[in-house]
Amino acid sequence: MHLRIESATTYAYDRPPRRSTQYLRLTPQSGPGQTVGNWDISAPGTLTAWTDMFGNRCHTLSVERPGPALEIAVAGTVQTTDTAGVLPPSPAGALPDTAYLRTTGYTRPDPGIAAFAEPWRPACETDRLAGLHELMTAIHAEVAYVEGSTSVQTTAGEAFAERRGVCQDHAHILIAAARCLGIPARYVSGYLWTGETGAGGAAFSASHAWAECLVGGLGWVSFDAANGVCATDAYVRAAVGFDYATACPVRGVRTGGGEERMATEIRLFREDEPGASQAGPAQQEP
Amino acid sequence: MSPSPVFDEMTGPAGGPRPAWAALQAWLDSTPLDLLHRKRGEAEALFRRLGITFYLYGDGAAAERMIPFDVLPRILSAEEWATVERGCIQRVQALNMFLHDIYHDREILRAGKVPADLAIDNDAYRPEMAGVDLPGRVYSHIAGIDIVRTGPDDFFVLEDNLRTPSGVSYMLENRETTMRLFPDLFAGMSVRPVGSYPDRLLQNLRAVAPAGRPDPAVVLLTPGRLNAAYFEHVFLAEQMGVELVEGQDLFVDGGRVFMRTTGGPERVDVIYRRIDDDFLDPLAFDPESVLGVAGLLSVVRSGGVTLANAIGAGVADDKAIYSFVPEIVRFYLGEEPVLANVPSYLLRNPDDCRYVLEHLDELVVKEVHGSGGYGMLIGPKASRAEREAYRQRILADPAAFMAQPTLALSTCPTLVEDGVAPRHVDLRPFVLSGETTSLVPGAFTRVALPEGSLVVNSSQGGGTKDTWVLGE
Amino acid sequence: MLSRSAENLYWMSRYIERAENAARVLDVSYRMSLMPSAAPKESLYWQPAIEIGNDPAAFGAQYGEASQSNVLHFTVLDRANPSSVYSCIRAARENARAERTRISSEMWEALNETWLAIADLDAARLDTWGLRAFFDWVKSRSHLFRGVTVGTALQDDAFHFIRIGTFIERADSTARILDVKYHVLLPSGEEAGGSVDYYQWGALLRSVSAFRAYRNVYRREIAPWRVAELLILYPAFPRSLAACLAEVDRTLGPLAPSERLECVRLAGDLYADLRYGKIDDIFRDGLHEFLEDFIRRNNRLADRLQSDFMMSAVVE
Questions:
Q1: Quick check: C98 and B245 CB within 8 A?
Q2: Cβ of A18 and C315 within 8 Å?
């Protein structure tokens, strides 16, 4: 699939801050399954590229006295291929796989998730790939996708207790469950082409999140529990992390000033088909 | 007096003073007690005037307090110091190599010398540092090695402090004070000087600046006035002649760190930070932190600034890693450790666990990842019921515990209300790493002032002494 | 130097100056309330002390009537009023404590002793102390601190920021005192130069230590426009607006040698108006309007100093 992605994140302040500093994980990288072309980020202030512990391409944005509003715009194209959801193992020198067993605030394995995951332990031990598929399907069935039912602060345990959430919560629940079973798992933030999957009125936003679990002999396998499928060529990976906090597209701190409001608008265009339709605009609600 | 297994550092085998202490003993014999008490009063007044205090919290309000100072110095002979110095340098070199390794190729884990989970699953292991190349490969630029002694040649390392060890200001101020109180005694004994510490520290910090910075700017980052060690932060910044900054003074722009000055932003190359990892960057660690600098991690990762000590150095001073330090020394340096560990039992090993459960009344049992002496069982002092309750906790999760024998810490002569009497002490020398690894000949000696007490901690009645290292 | 340090030092001297000026104003109110011709309503004497302060509304909301005891409590003792003498001295000392390595030990000791003497001050202790004695003490501690500063501080940037704090605060205070007292002494409709109460004008001059200065400069009876001229335009009187702004203008020079900062322009502009101003013009356009405008411009200068050199964000 050939996709063009445009996103704009806008902050509005009721009193302008003195300074805003942000970590941006908005730059997909070329690799198995995706080739990135002409990627561009524009924002006021200084943008400095760096690479985080997961190998994500990050930028630090520093803006002195941004004024009443601040916009971060991203545009570029990605050519994707279907890898059946499988990515190669981490290269040498990368973070050790066992680091992905860490518990984090978002993915702390609460007793509810641990108990829910436990029946799949034998299946995962005999055939991890099949076991994880079953676990994903079970979570997909158990936890309803309800737009606006949770916030970006919601933890896996909280969402699971309510049996509902959005893609961020499904990913966190699956990660927490996998780690309970001793399986390294990580969070992926990215984009999902939904232009042709509108069946049943499914309201997936163009900004998406899912999980990847380590399967010996194969590598990292993606599981999108919100949709109950593995990733296809409709998925664009922008960043990975232990959880939302370490993989989210934008994380910022400001000094001074008053309240802020943030809005993100994302538009995906499919460019390899005649008369390709446009998905979006959509509000970000990962 | 009944024979005691406790080693008194002044007393020789025949009862007379050991050679290094002879001059002090003679001086004590000829000095009236009331003069010593008067000198102690002078010392206290001096400390109060200089504002050498630390903060204690309680009753809702922070109170300034002074750590009691014992006027009688502790003396180490040239040979004793040589052992301590060699052992500390060896240990810190190996620990820095260990830290570089576990944040890069992890050879020691692959070789099976240290269990991988103890390092990688450790909360103090900071994956954020994986793959970051630090100048000189130094992680712990300032290390405080806590040493206890049980006999003439028996020095044991009790704990390595590789994060933000404090106490060095006492080493320096105590020396100033004893020189002022007892100039004659001091002059007659060829005590090696410690005053060069701030210069050596600055030199080492400048040596680890990012490449291409011929005249690097060093700052000391403090959490602020309410920190227990604030006095030390002020003292060291002043002695080194560097700015004492708080997080709000710094900002990140263009892959560099700047401080806000009245003349505009000034670039900072090396940050001697006295705040914990968790608070360094609200975008990478605790998002509620207001002590740190937003964006700092990104600059560290791309080499635009050096932090001393490095983020994640704490994984190597963890109690679980501690018991592997001798192995770490052998692995990286191919040498036998000069300084022994206090023997430790890791209850994750079934043999150790069995032994500990059978000897609960003799041992000190601690939580592997705990700190500050909480959740500890002191076997000889605990009741049967307490031991039984603890046994149940151990059985529930043996891997969470470790145990050590109770040690008979050495004593030194100390001025107390009714005269000069032996009191238990420990020793914290400070090891500096940058271009090289070195120590100034001195240390922070803590003394447990109540009779019989083994607790040297300043929050529980501990005091300090000047430590005199004699020349050849 | 660090922006935060500059800010701490600047506020250290502003607060000690503010404490001094509060004591001066209260001293005058107290003296006038003791006059034989004292008005039946004590609030007539004490209300101005509230008007001169930074937050008259806060007083009104919490205390109501401007009785002697209410006013004294609010302006001297109230821990919650950031401009009370108590709060000012505490804030000055806290700012000094943060910068102990940048000030001389004598400066620190002078401020610390001042603070320790009032740390547990309450109405009963103030009563025992005696109001006149207390106000004199506050003034003398401020004099001592300023003297110790000039006599012991290294004359570096830190010193310059300390000086600027003193004179910005003093100019603000002199302008407020003159504005409020003038208002009270000259009710609308009364001609300048009409019947004035010698004692009251004398008290106003004394509140800014200008009584003898007036006599030496004018050698004439006290007249309102001459009082205003002395306190606004007379360059040799150290509490006049002209003298304060001359000091700020001069001190800013070495702090901002390279760039043309907005605060330097504002200070120069304000100073020029005072240096070349004429008292006849000021009265023609309205003294009250002139003083209000001055206070506003002086505040803008202070805000700009903060944003050009220090930490605080300025909301434009």
A1: no
A2: no
- Which CATH architecture is the domain A86-247 placed in? Roll (3.10)
CB–CB contact C161 B262 (8 Å): yes
Which residue, B232, B228, B209, B207, is CA-closest to B220?
B232
Facing residue for A62 by CB, picked from B105, B128, B295: B295
Domains of chain B, by residue range, sit at 19-336+409-469, 344-405
What ipTM was reported for this prediction? 0.91
Predicted confidence pLDDT, tens digits, chain A (286 residues): 899 999 999 999 998 898 999 999 999 999 999 999 989 999 999 999 999 999 999 999 999 989 899 999 999 999 999 999 999 998 877 899 999 999 899 998 889 999 999 999 999 999 999 999 999 999 999 999 998 899 989 999 999 999 999 999 999 999 999 999 999 999 999 999 887 544 433 334 568 999 999 998 899 999 999 999 999 999 999 999 999 999 999 999 998 888 889 888 888 888 876 444 445 444 444 4
Q: A44 CB near a chain C CB, below 8 Å?
A: no
Interface contact A153, partner B, CB < 8 A? no
Class level of CATH domain A2-80+248-283: mainly beta
Chains touching chain C through at least 3 C-beta pairs below 8 angstroms are A, B
For chain A, where do the domains classified as CATH 3.10.620.30 start and end?
A: 86-247
Could you confirm whether domain B344-405 is CATH 3.30.1490.270? yes
Nearest residue of C to residue B251 by CA position?
A: C311
Q: Closest chain B residue to C102 measured between Cα atoms?
A: B238
CB atoms C315 and A15 under 8 Å: yes
**Which A residues 65-104 touch C at CB under 8 Å?**
65
